[in-house]
Amino acid sequence: MPELPEVESLTEFLRDRAVGHTVVGVDVVGFQALKTFDPPVSALGGLEITGVSRHGKFLDLDCDGLHLVIHLARAGWLRWKEDLSGAKPVRPGKGPLAVRVRLSPNELGLAPGFELTEAGTQKRLAVYVVKDPADVPGVAALGPDPLVPEFTVAKLQEILGGNRTQIKGLLRDQKVIAGIGNAYSDEVLHAAKMSPFKIAASLTPEQVADLHEAIVTTLRDAVERAHGLAAKDLKAEKKSGLRVHNRAGQPCDVCGDTIREVSFADSSLQYCPTCQTGGKPLADRRMSKLLK
Question: What is the pTM of this model?
């Protein structure tokens, strides 16, 4: 799933390549992806892309005041095309293509654009055409962005105070903190040397400060690694930079212990027992507790 660092890099990528182009057309193949009908998606035709920004894990293309907002969900991705002039007409089907955005030709006569694709059978990729990004419910409900100056240790303490949620789930909650998903919550907790099942309200002031440092540093480092990469290279970069997520059975780069996994119905987490849980493995079942 693309998370804050990858979406930030996609934002930068589109800002460099799409801004200044006029939208020639938007072809919707996966009709379930389009979540709005007024304004219609056809209203984007003829509008110039004047800016690209990010809201948590949402991409926002400003088209002369009308916004094309994209959430790539778990299995979605954006594929940039340098020239779509010879592309075959899109037809609804069972393939991964959900949306194609065609842009005006550049000085070389090439007609660039991008495609939104989604793998798997669970179609969760979402596209909105709105007058204000806040009209998208998921954007309106976002918590603070962890990379803005206002996200201070004091702000994090305010978020955690009195919250009886396990810290892993809290970090993934977009209404609490925007942009962190399953992968980077694993990475943050490893950097903070904290159990994923620690209760948020139980953190000491020192642990809150450590967690804040881990959040900001982990995300900024990932953004920096992704800086300047083409969209097609971001997935590989994300995978190569992860220390614990999706590395169950491999040695921890910090202490050498074996990275363990806890599996749930539709997701899993990875952690290092030595770094995070005092050397004790977590039971691999829902609502895990430390093994006695």
Answer: 0.91
